[in-house]
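U., I forgot to send this yesterday:
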Amino acid sequence: MVSVGDMQMVDPDGPYAELMQRLLEATADDLRLVFQYDSESVDIAFLREDFLSEDMVPRVDELHSRAKIIETMPTEDTQAVYGDLEANVTVHEDVFVLHFFGTEGDGLVAVVDRGDGSVIRSIF
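Result:
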């Protein structure tokens, strides 16, 4: 499901519904893409209008692959000291990629512009 303008939830009762709504509210026009994934599928929940003409499948596939790799990276020592990995932020020249990890191989990925007014940029 792809939405332009108002974010439409892939699963409004799912574990990421509230997080997706908060991302939309906090990032306003800076949000490019949001997708949920599980072991079986990837569902695009939001795609900003100016990216509709682009082929997003290779980009989403790459981000999904990275999310699955990062999810399995913590060692037992790291988990013992810090606990389970719940999220990861990747900083690129033009965007922030936010990975939120769930349980059993599911998660949410959001891509946010790194513009000067970005809320995410103000944090970093």
